[in-house]
Amino acid sequence: MQQQLPDTQLLYIFDPLCGWCYGMSPLIKRLAEEYAERVPFTVLSGGMVTGDDVEPIGKRWDYISQALKQVEQVTGVEFGAAFHALGAEGSYVNNSEPPSRALMVFKQLDPLNREVAFAHDIQRAHFAEGRDLNAPDTYEQLAKAYSLDAGEFRRWWESDATREATQHEFDMVRQLGVQGFPTLVFVHGHQGYVLTRGYQPYEELKAGLEQLLNETAHQ
Fold first, then answer.
1. Which one of 3.40.30.10, 1.10.10.10, 3.40.50.300, 3.40.50.1240 gives the CATH number of domain 8-216?
2. Full-model pTM
3. Confidence of residue 145 (pLDDT cuts 50, 70, 90)
4. What is the pLDDT of residue 30?
5. Which of 56, 103, 160, 174 has its CA 20 to 30 A from that of 134?
6. Structural contact between residues 23 and 74, judged by C-beta atoms closer than 8 angstroms
């Protein structure tokens, strides 16, 4: 068994409402599982749709629905009929903060560092199943699948402290200079190396990560 390198981690910087992140999500989940013994993964939410950008999905549905077709063609994921119905109806409010806050709660409550899997589940619930990411019961159900207490999860999700921590994470991502999602940054000590900006096939991701692990192994 290979040991984790000291002061090394892979930052997966995404947004729950990012279609390209949904396309990349199965690959990130696979990568995290394959490299679990070698490098820890940390998921950061970028706050793509916040503030003045929060609006009903119907306002941009024509653009969004066209963009989803490209994501499907390139990545092979499918956006479910329930999500398309949500978009076509139009009143659902796109807001990155509630699902990002749910991921923040999960990172605090889960002892097994399964945040990549939970981020994947949030996106699948929305983009495949059409679930409401503004509703606490969506996360209560997801939390139960990880043997977490649903009531405790909801209390944390509704707390001001979690709201503040989530906003702090958005600010941190902006300070890192991340311009788009998904972005993968390999961190070793005080150095950061961009593994990818945007979608990349699995074998290319793996090859890039192997190269970075080998290059930093003796630093």
1. 3.40.30.10
2. 0.95
3. very high
4. 97
5. 174
6. yes
